[in-house]
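Request: Give me one sample?
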Amino acid sequence: MAKEIERAGIPTVHICTVVPISRTVGANRIVPAIAIPYPLGNPAKSNKEEKLLRRALVEKALRALETKIEEQTVF
């Protein structure tokens, strides 16, 4: 889906747990996630730690959106 949205001229970031799959499907901006069952978190962490973790991933994805790229890029 990210690839189709990009074709429409809207930059996207694919946050994923398995980077090779994202590369295979053609995602342009790829941000590795935490783990398959919890891509944007870690239930073993405290609420405060998990919030910081999630915020860091979202901030990384926003920086990726701002970045001009010429080819698939993993951030």
